[in-house]
Design goal:
The protein has about 130 residues and is an alpha/beta fold. About 45% of the residues lie in helices and about 25% in strands. A 5-stranded parallel sheet has the order 3-2-1-4-5, sandwiched between helices. The radius of gyration is 14 Å and the shape is globular.
């Protein structure tokens, strides 16, 4: 089976990656690391650079975990992309990072984390930085 992790360069994304690695080692599973941009990848602060993606590959290798790193810039929101890939690889687990948001922020901006939790068929593990 495979663990899918939503990755950003923020502390929440790094925490999700570390927890996915821990789970993969315990359960002897592969990892698919997803870095997603909903729009203009050039200006998206959550889109990792090639150096950052190489660093993720090194972290996986050093941990002894088989994995792939995918960066998707297709105009879809992160929740939809993660759900699609989780279904595609028949994920046993999806790992995401959470950040604290104000009540107004939740109302106005929506929540990818909430959408992933509610709409993804696989179990979802949400971690804090």
């Amino acid at each position: 089976m495979t663990i899918v992790v939503g990755y950003t360069t923020k502390p929440e994304g790094k925490a999700a990656l570390q927890r996915a690695i821990t789970e993969a080692r315990v359960h002897q599973e592969n990892v698919v690391v997803l870095n997603v941009s909903e729009g203009d990848g050039v200006r998206d602060p959550l889109l990792a650079s090639e150096d950052e993606l190489d660093s993720v590959r090194r972290i996986l290798a050093e941990a002894g975990v088989e994995g792939t790193v995918r960066q998707l810039v297709r105009g879809k929101d992160a929740a939809d992309e993660i759900g699609t890939i989780a279904t595609e690889v028949d994920a046993s687990l999806v790992v995401i990072g959470l950040r604290r948001r104000s009540p107004v922020g939740k109302l106005v901006l929506g929540s990818n984390s909430q959408k992933i939790l509610l709409n993804t068929a696989a179990p979802v593990l949400a971690v804090k930085a």
